[in-house]
Design goal:
Blueprint (H helix, E strand, L loop, with lengths): L4 E4 L3 H11 L5 E5 L12 E2 L1 H6 L10 E3 L1 E5 L6 E5 L5 E3 L2 H14 L3 E4 L3 E6 L4 E5 L4 E4 L1 E4 L6 H5 L9 E10 L2 H8 L5 E5 L6 E7 L3 E8 L5 H4 L4 H14 L13 E6 L7 E2 L2 E3 L15 H21 L4 H30 L3 H11 L2 H10 L9 H16 L3
Parallel strand pairs: 1-2, 1-12, 2-8, 5-14, 12-19
Antiparallel strand pairs: 3-7, 4-7, 5-6, 9-10, 10-11, 13-16, 13-17, 14-15, 15-16, 18-19
């Protein structure tokens, strides 16, 4: 079986890449090891700018819109409250959202096979051969690896893997009547974010959706296996639920049962291209280190990868030197933003600074509102970093002077 491009992994990155390739009349195969629809460890936050960039994301793929929320310090004594007239984010149920993107790709002409795993990859002078667990082999001119944090494509192409540099998360998505959801989270579907709960290098979250709520906890600084084992995440999650119930932030019927877990890439790969190969999404480490959101970066990278692959096919140049333009494109698009969020995360998680910073930001929540406003446009957050920094320094100085 021969194709122009094979996309491995049918999450947002892979489905997006496959869709745009098929619309360019490229013969593309999309494969995934899971049978769809399938769940994905994720809070399910979707930025408004993602919907604007990809307008085919229709309301039937969105569970709810969020108009505000709160960010808490580790002690829960300090918080920043954000509220807006317009939605600041959307929430999706990943099982429905990802399957919806796959169906859009299929309608665009993509050949889709689920329940099939890639086991090996052979990069030859004139083609790529992908071996499947069905003992089949398929050939193409190019391969896009969008197969998650344990990417087979990344490993077999020599680009590496994320084993030494991952975070962990636990979550559960609990069905609740909408009147109960409105009682606890209002009709505005207000989110809750908890920094450094129980001292963990990460955060907990509550994401209310239509008919359900997603409650999770993620470790965002697991740079070594020793550090990853530092926190008994399952026990901490149970304590997290207990505290939320005790403080009446969630219904008392919720317990820490039916947990699901996953791994989070904490940094992008230094190199996301090789001869005949590109990496997208979690497979490339393209995730927001501050919020854990990867959907926007995944879909944006998938579109960019499709554009570069199409040009490569038309010119007949598929080597690493030519494909390197993909990395420049995604770094120009959102690479600088990832670095900024990484610095902010390190600032918030270092020592007990989260208490002071959240207390200061609570005096001027407009900074958070500004971030959400920028994040809902196609403008780059890094172009506003100094303006935001100046406002924060102003608060800091006023606090020192007791003003």
């Amino acid at each position: 079986m021969k194709y122009d491009v094979i996309v491995v992994g049918a999450g947002p990155a892979g489905a997006t890449a496959a869709k745009f390739l098929a619309e360019k009349d490229v013969n593309v195969l999309l494969v995934d090891k899971s049978v769809f629809p399938r769940d994905k460890p994720c809070g399910g936050a979707l930025s408004i700018r993602t919907i604007k960039r990809f307008p085919y994301i229709s309301d039937d793929l969105i569970s709810s819109y969020c108009f505000g929320g709160s960010v808490y310090s580790s002690s829960l004594k300090n918080r920043v409250v954000v509220q807006n007239e317009d939605p600041i984010a959307a929430f999706v149920v990943r099982k429905d959202f990802d399957y919806g993107l796959v169906k859009i790709a299929i309608k665009s002409g993509v050949n889709f096979r689920d329940g099939v795993s890639a086991t090996d990859l052979k990069i030859l002078n004139d083609k790529v051969v992908l071996l499947l667990d069905t003992e089949e082999s398929v050939e193409s001119q190019l391969v896009i690896g969008a197969d998650g944090v344990w990417s087979v494509v990344a490993k077999k192409s020599g680009l590496g893997n994320h084993y030494p540099n991952i975070g962990r998360c636990l979550y559960q998505e609990i069905r609740l009547p909408n009147d109960v959801l409105d009682e606890y989270f209002t009709k505005k579907k207000n989110f809750q974010l908890f920094l450094k709960f129980m001292g963990i290098d990460g955060f907990g979250w509550i994401a209310p959706k239509n008919g359900c709520v997603n409650i999770g906890m993620g470790e965002m600084q697991g740079s070594s296996s020793q550090q990853q084992n530092k926190y008994p995440l399952k026990e901490l999650y149970s304590e997290f639920i207990h505290v939320l119930v005790e403080r009446k932030m969630i219904p008392p019927t919720i317990t820490s049962q039916t947990l699901q877990g996953g791994a989070l890439p904490l940094q992008p790969f230094k190199k996301t291209f090789a001869d005949r190969v590109l990496l997208c999404g979690d497979a490339a480490g393209q995730m927001n280190p501050l919020t854990g959101d990867g959907i926007h970066y995944a879909m944006s990278a998938g579109k960019l990868a499709a554009d570069v692959c199409d040009t490569a096919l038309k010119t007949g140049i598929t080597n690493a030197s030519f494909l390197s333009k993909y990395q420049k494109m995604w770094k120009d698009d959102f690479g600088g933003e990832i670095k900024i969020f990484e610095r902010v995360l390190n600032m918030l998680l270092k020592g007990n600074r989260d208490e002071k910073y959240i207390r200061l930001l609570s005096r001027e929540p407009q900074i958070f509102s500004m971030l959400f406003a920028i994040g809902n446009t196609q403008e780059r957050i890094q172009d506003y970093q100094w303006s935001i920094a100046r406002r924060f320094v102003s608060i800091y100085i006023r606090d020192l002077l007791g003003i």
